[in-house]
Amino acid sequence: MNGGDELRGMKSGQKMRLASGGAIERSQEIVFSFNGVALRGHPGDTLASALLANGIILTARSFRYHRPRGIFSAGVEENQALLTILHHGGVTPNVRASRQMLYEGLTACSQNCWPGPRFDLGAISGWLSRFMPVGFYYKTFMWPQWRWWEPLVRKLAGTAPAPQKTDRVDTVQSADIVGRFDKRHAHCDLLIVGAGPAGLAAARAAAQGGSLRMVIVDSEHAAGGSLHWQPARIADEDGLKWADRQIELLNRSSDITILRRTTAIAAYDHGHYTAIEQRGAGGGTLWHIRARHTILASGAIERPLVFPNNDRPGIMLADAARHYVNRFAVKPGSRAVIFTNNDSAYQCAVDLHRVGIEVAAMVDVRADISGHWQARLDDLGIEQFRGFTLVDTRGYLRLRKVKIHRLDADGKCQSGSRDHWIDCDLLCSSGGWSPTAHLYSQAGGKLEWNSRSLCFVPANREDQENAPVELPICVGAANGQLDLAGCMHNGHQAGLTILRAICGETGALAPPETPQEIAGALSQAHWHTPPPAGKRTTARQWVDMLHDVTADSIEVAAREGFVSVEHMKRYTTTGMAIDQGKTGNVNALGLLGHLTGRDIGAVGTTTFRPPYLPVSLGAMAGRETGSRFWPQRRLPAHEAHIEAGGVMEDHGGWSRAACYRISGETEEQAIRREVRAARESVALLDSSSLGKLEVRGTDALEFLNRMYVNRVETLNSGRIRYGMMLNENGIIVDDGVFARLDDDRPRSEHFLVSTSSSGATEVALSFEEWLQTEWPELDVVVNNITTQWATFTISGPRSREVLATILSDADLSPAALPHMSLLSGAIGTMPYRLMRVSFSGELSFELNVPAGQAHATWDRLLDTGQYAGITPLGMEALDILRVEKGYLEVGVDTDGSTCPLDVGWGDAIAKKTGDFVGRRSLARSGNTHQNRLQLVGLRALRPDRLLEVGAHLVTVRPRTTEGHVTSSCISPTLDQSVALAMLCGGQNRLGQTVCVDIEGERVAATVVPMTFYDPGGLRLSD
Amino acid sequence: MLIDCPWCGPRNQDEFICGGQAHIERPASPAMLTDEQWARYQFNRTNPRGLHFERWQHIFGCFQWFHLARDTRSHRILAIYNMDELPPESII
Fold first, then answer.
1. pLDDT tens digits, residue range A861-916?
2. Whether the predicted model's global pTM rises above the 0.80 cut
3. How far separated are the first and last CA of chain A, in Å rounded?
4. Which of A447, A961, A1005, B69 could form a disulfide with A938 if both were Cys (CB 3.0 to 4.6 A apart)?
5. Is B83 close to A772, i.e. CB distance below 8 A?
6. Distance from CA of A729 to the nearest CA of B (A)
7. What number of other Cβ atoms are within 10 A of residue A37's Cβ?
8. In angstroms, rounded to a whole number, what is the distance separating the alpha carbons of residues A621 and A354?
9. A754 forms bridges with which residues in the sheet?
10. CB contact under 8 A, B63 and A768
11. Chain A nearest-CA residue for B19
């Protein structure tokens, strides 16, 4: 890439611009820059047409061999003039020059060359190319391992580097230029892709009666499709005028949406399409369109012919030359040769001649062509070579001359015939047309080979088994219909079909009148140019110019057995990446068929997959970036935590305080202070994120009995029990507590289920799934009330006395409210639920209040407890408290293979009668053997050495792992490094010494029971 | 896909989750089963080319589960019916 901003003097002349004609705004000039040189163009120009107007055709170096390459097409199929655009929002690589509308200040650079496209050091790989056949990388870099070579090879290959920075989305200076992406949705009865003659004829027919909701998308900024470069008369007026008038008529209806510069890129199931609306260089809108019916009028793409050295700058598609001459009033060259196998390129000769480009020769592989064209070219004095092919070209940075040779009746180069060089700087080649049926194929439609028009066309839907109902109707060139009258008729009929299907009307309009076209001669297949008589090879013939795939590459692939089209594609990379089979595919398939003695129809095509065009990842993301992609959930008293000095972090999607720093403190000091407060006086934790589910109904008890490994029926009203939940595979998925409430309804049971903070949604979903799908007979209602209630945990020896001053009416004594029990009440008018449960090992209460009262309640607790030194408690301190106490955390100490037996719950489960989810799986031999990873406590021999989470427990002989540390801390309370760990057969290894490998350092630790602090639980029952 | 939720009407597939194969009944007495029988209930699923019966939930909508019969070749939806219903005879 070259620095774009330093402008090396202004070139003024658009020397290749024609004096008149074209759909450009001549009265205005636009200044833009290419590789640091300031140039001029006009509004209405594409970047490609403006470059050509300035006499620049060389734009890039090729992907593999760094061959000089130039502007090759005028449309979406451009795969040579891929440029990087620098703009205010950042850089956008791989922009097709032929698709980028010119704007004031546009700054473009060449890619894949250094220092520039005229002199490129990378071209050295071109000289080495004879040693680098297809599959070179696969075959060469196998030893010792591909991954050693990969970074090097990746650097050498490829086009432009990806943008390093995120596009700025919030600072829009000019929506048309700066990168900004959006998403929009649309629904319609009929989606029409393409506003060319066929698409407009369809829209015109379907719009009769005005009852259809319609969306019309078109890639260009003005409707008309092929009429832009192929002038024609429709209904007795200029075709483009007719197109504009149709758009104007359609625009009158508010039910019809016309999207310009919008390309449909993907067809999904049930009429779901996506389309990208281009805005400026780096921005766009991704449309999601849901259509009941779809008409594809997406046209066709011209194929190049394959001949030796067919990749030089100055060689372009015949229709591209007509684009530049007719639409942009630009001469792509001064002296042209046209090479074709079909009739469509003859009009190119006429158009070039009309604007004063000397047409040196018309070379046709066919021996016989229609008398009409023969006479027409004779009239213009254009020399014609029928039954000839191109066998070579010359010119390194720009085409200088081409060599032609006579073909014999078998399509081989005739022996004895003399070569003939023709000077030219422009070669227009046409190998026929490929209908743009990508979306039809994506939607599930099949393509079949038409040997008359030499192209793959959409197969009749009646002939396709299991075709989706929503298959689009292809019309016009997308259906293989290349003449204007046929396109119009085709489109009109499709429009009527849809109108009839939706409204039952037929409409009175007749298809628009167009002049009859003369019947021409048939095209002749010419997949590559055979070597001259007596020789085995020719110079390289490029089949897929984007990837530098040659006819030889296809031949090597076929010889090595890659004869299936899908294999050949992947081996040679033909038709992959940016091109997506737009130009090279059919030639490659024809050649593969020729080499393997098969008809091209039998070779078949590869499957077309979305997207039709490369789409910036930014467009896929839209505005869902950063915090909009993953919104952080906030606790109801969020601001209170900020005020208290909370260091906020993400905990399972919630923004929670890791610790609360007061002035001058390190985080570590803060954490120790908070732990001490909880152990010695009183601490306050906001645990509002804990999941809270109400489970109620006549069968609520029975339901929870089936969901939890614990016994529910023995739980009395007002009491709480720890609960562990498994999936059907016996794996622990969540834990928490459930409380039994009084229910005033007869025979109804009422429970309050508390889940882990991150598990609330999953548990609620799982409850719903079991109730709705498996046990619909159970009378149970589940209500997720997580965000309705704020929860504050008040822990520590002085927690009771602090709470008692607030809840003056409640009896908090151990006799009235023992550990694992709850009471309800009200502070004034504010209801609350108080649960005596503990995750810290201290006397502890969870106070639930309405979420709206969270901030006030937090403040009140801090004020009231001030005398006792009440301290806000963060997540780090909480983790230390629960590790000291040996409480496991699901998902931290357990993983996707941990069953309750592994964490010491075997005895408790054995007491339960009856079934619960996952119980049968616990009896499988794999879940019961003694060498499973089991949760144990570890005490480091060096009390100050932290046993880091994730460190493996290793054995020396044999050298292997026997477990890993899951949670750990240096306990401030015990002044001792402790940990929870998963250890093979750990439950039977208490007292043993194990070796913890902390990044190479071996640390000894003793296996101990999990509870380090207050093993008797005296502090809980206080 | 466009899925016609029995409670909310046609909605984009994004609003739903697929709960896999339908009409697999949880055994009444799991404890009586052999490991093989239990594994069959837990893990064995069909993967037909053609008609497939599935469970779906309108998770970004009414939260309701329902049955859906789909042709896996064309993604055509042949029937949508309630959790306590069997597939309509017309499509079997």
1. 999 999 999 999 999 999 999 999 999 999 999 999 999 999 999 888 988 989 99
2. yes
3. 74
4. A1005
5. yes
6. 8
7. 17
8. 48
9. A692, A737
10. yes
11. A769
Q: pLDDT tens, A1-34?
A: 343 333 343 445 899 999 999 999 999 999 999 9
Q: Which residues of A touch B85 (CB under 8 A)?
A: none
- CA separation for the pair A812, A806 (Å, rounded): 11
Q: Which chain B residue's Cα is nearest to A728?
A: B42
Tell me: cis bond preceding A776? Omega within 30 of 0 counts: no
- φ, ψ dihedrals at A156, nearest 5°: -75, -30
Owner of token pair 């033909």? A574
Residue A169: pLDDT band (50, 70, 90) is very low
Give the span between the Cα atoms of B40 and A157, in whole angstroms: 50
Residue B2 and residue A444: Cβ atoms within 8 Å? no
Q: Which residues, other chains included, contact A481 with Cβ-Cβ below 8 Å and sequence gap of 6+?
A: A198, A475, A487, A490
Pairing assessment for the beta strands A473-474 and A283-296 based on DSSP bridges: parallel
Q: Are A222 and A228 in contact (CB under 8 A)?
A: yes
List all residues 6 or more positions away from A895 whose beta carbon is below 8 Å from its beta carbon. none
**Interface probe with B: pick from A183, A773, A775, A916, most Cβ of B within 10 Å:** A773
CB nearest to B65's CB, from A290, A444, A772: A772
In single-letter form, the type of residue at position A968 comes to S
Extended strands (E) in A664-712: 683-686, 691-697
Apex A876 CA angle, A874 and A880, nearest 5: 115
Summary mean pLDDT of chain A: 90
CB contacts of B37 in chain A (<8 Å) are none
Angstrom distance (rounded) from CA A77 to CA A132: 27
Contact at 8 Å (CB) between A600 and A590?
Answer: yes
- Give the best residue of A183, A268, A270 to mutate against chain B (max B CB count within 10 A): A270
Show the tokens assigned to A177.
């230029």
Residue A273: which of A39, A696, A611 has the closest Cα? A611
The alpha-helical segments, DSSP class H, found in B4-81 are 35-43
Read off the pLDDT of each residue in A935-953 and give the average, rounded to a whole number: 97
- The residue count of chain B comes to 92
- Determine, for residues B65 and A467 on separate chains, whether the beta-carbon distance falls below 8 Å: no
Q: Do B35 and A924 touch (CB under 8 A)?
A: yes
Give CA separation, A152 vs A146, A155, A239, in Å.
10, 5, 54
- What does the alpha-carbon distance between residue A212 and residue A1015 come to, in Å, rounded to a whole number? 75
**Contact list, A773 vs chain B (CB under 8 Å):** 19, 55, 65, 83
This model of the complex carries an ipTM of 0.97
What does the alpha-carbon distance between residue A246 and residue A192 come to, in Å, rounded to a whole number?
14
Q: Do A773 and B12 touch (CB under 8 A)?
A: no
The per-residue pLDDT for range B28-59, each reduced to its tens digit, is: 999 999 999 999 999 999 999 999 999 999 99
Question: Measured between beta carbons, which residues in chain A are less than 8 angstroms from residue B63?
Answer: 768
Residue A365 contacts residue A524 (beta carbons within 8 Å): yes
Give the chain B residue nearest A767 (alpha carbons): B63
